Amino acid sequence: MTQPTLAHATEFGRMYSRSLTSAPEVPSITTVIGQEHKDLTGWAGHLATQELIQDDRLAAAVGSASQLKTLARHAASAAERFRDAAAQRGDRVHHYAEQVALRALGTDHEVDTARATLVQHGETAFADRFDEWWDLYGVRPLAAEVTVWNHTIGYAGTLDLIAEIAGRTCVIDFKTKGLDRRGRAKPLSESVVMQLVAGMQAEERLVDAQAGIWEPWPHGQDCLLMAVAVSETEVVPVQATPAALKAHWHKFWALRQVWEHGRRTAEAGPSLRPLAPPPAAASAGATTSTAKAPGGDGVPPVTPAA
């Protein structure tokens, strides 16, 4: 997958700049969505357990505390390794999808190289299933890897594909999925609806990254929003339900505010600082008094320094 040229990794997550020579200004769509907390401890614990019980070294390590600790440390990172491997696979599949679109657009492409990379990793089935979906749905690409900007809310992102299917303009996001126990593609997360609706609400799209040239978003807000799950056995396209778009857009807006306040509090500097005890009482009578100060518990109220 092409790395968006205007995207930057920052301490506040991925952010976008307006040109190659300007500083990052707004968060990416995925950074905003990432503000929603998702508890993955159960999933991570399951992967760690599976990693440990399937480790061939486990039997020999029983009775040795040091060896068991080594295996446990290795198993503890199972979720991180799984995530990284899935991300790399997703990049390879996305890159192939992009090259197919570029070929259809009549521009320079690397379809053969992208497919060969999938072959090297034993992932040819992803390309085969993608090609079947592409032909079955009669996809006519309009643009691939489109960087967009919204000034009103303040965010940017890169859309996988804008295409025409059966006469409708579609905003399309590809998700590479593993298989469930039945050999079917695992279901998509509903957070993809936020991603799609944020893309549809674009106000500008990038024309020239070097010069920082943008143009008004040409597709309006009447696009069909489609998420496409690509697996080894099937491709499952789904549409974002039109009646749900408003609620997901409001949720995205709220998460954008969460990101903004998080950035502001981080830039404000340390939020806590050491506090010295109050000065000794001026009189012996006050020293021996058991009366409480107005702040309660014998501690005078503290007024924040200017």
Q: What is the rounded Rg?
A: 27 Å
Instruction: Give the mean pLDDT.
Output: 88
Kindly, what is the distance between the CA atoms of the first and last residues, rounded to a whole number of angstroms? 50 Å
Number of strands: 10
Number of helices: 10
Helix amount: 40-55%
The overall number of domains is 1
Structural class: alpha+beta
Largest sheet: 7 strands, mixed
Region (Disordered): 265-306
Biased composition (Low complexity): 281-294
Protein name: PD-(D/E)XK nuclease family protein
Organism: Nesterenkonia aethiopica
How would you describe this protein?
It is a single chain. The protein is built from ten helices and ten strands. The protein is an alpha+beta fold. It has one domain. The strands form two sheets. The chain has a seven-stranded mixed sheet, sandwiched between helices. A three-stranded antiparallel sheet has the order 1-2-3. Helix 5 (78-105) runs antiparallel to helix 6 (111-120) and helix 8 packs across helix 9 (245-267).
Keywords:
41% helix, alpha+beta, three-stranded antiparallel beta sheet, 306 residues, globular, single chain, seven-stranded mixed beta sheet
SSE layout and pairing:
Blueprint: E1 7-10, E2 13-16, E3 26-27, H1 29-33, H2 41-53, H3 58-61, H4 65-76, H5 78-105, H6 111-120, H7 124-137, E4 140-150, E5 155-165, E6 168-176, H8 191-200, E7 204-208, E8 213-216, E9 224-230, E10 235-239, H9 245-267, H10 284-288
Helix pairs in contact: 2-4, 5-6, 8-9
